[in-house]
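ok here's the first one, seq then struct tokens
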Amino acid sequence: MKPEIINSNWPNALRWFLVQNTESFCPWHFLSHSTEFESAAKAFANEDTKNRMVFVFASRQDNDDFAGLEIVDGTITDKVIVFHPVFGSGKSYRSWDVVETEYNDVFEFLSNHIVQDMKDWALTEDASDLLG
């Protein structure tokens, strides 16, 4: 991601990866521009049973899993929420939650979630397949 696109108000843990151009963690990918996952953020706002909001910064390429930073009182926090929305057309009143899990920050999300997904992916796909 181009440094001028990275917002200084985003938590340092996220900026830490983006400024180093470490955005691809197959099968997960971090955003390449700030509005890339707006539709997922809108879906989360409509579908989360706790009525929270997130700034979505990552998606998993083989399903509709996303990771977002919780927004509290207009501020993007360190807390990562992993979720799987259904992308309904309006506000959802279901009783089950789209949230899969939550982490304290991007580092915890990466080490406890992404690395395991990468390991699982590597069991079925050769690294050379990622080249192109």
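and now the second one, same deal
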Amino acid sequence: MSAVPKKRLTAEEYLEFERKSEIKHEFYNGRVFAMAGAKRRHNLIALNIGSEIRSHLKGRDCEAYPSDMRVYVNEFGLYTYPDISVVCGEPEFQDDVFDTLLNPVLLIEILSDSTESYDRGRKFQHYRGIESLREYVLVSQNEARVEKYVRQGDGFWVLSEAVGIDSTIMFESIDCPIPLAEIYDKINLEEPDESEIN
């Protein structure tokens, strides 16, 4: 396993380090941050959403990627790993390794206690710097709730949400409705999340 470098790195040094690492790291402002592994509930939600999106995108000029696809936010020099990324049209990558996406239209993050503030705040601020991004989605692990921010023509972002297991969320950027019952399939929301037990 690779140790996290203590000195500040250039973006080039980070990519060289990251491509050899066995675990994922985010990079911002010269600093490298190790990412924690996801637990059962998080993984189920990600797979449920990814499966629905993949089925919906068949025959369309869009691709969905799981959390191993790194996204680069040029405006802020941020390298990060969204839980799900979707690109429509020709995907643009930073280089010919094809592991760093530049032009997502939809980014989805599954909230956890340790990342929720960051996902709602600074990370969303950074994501808004991606010119191609049309929609940002936050998915709760603790209740049937999905929030989405959609970029309007004037550049403003509008929040809406679907709440309750009988609700449906529409991912407008890819014209994809998903029932929350599918998102939370195999998840007992009555039980505490694994992260709350420890």
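notes on #2: The chain has six helices and 13 strands. The first strand starts at residue 25 and ends at 28.
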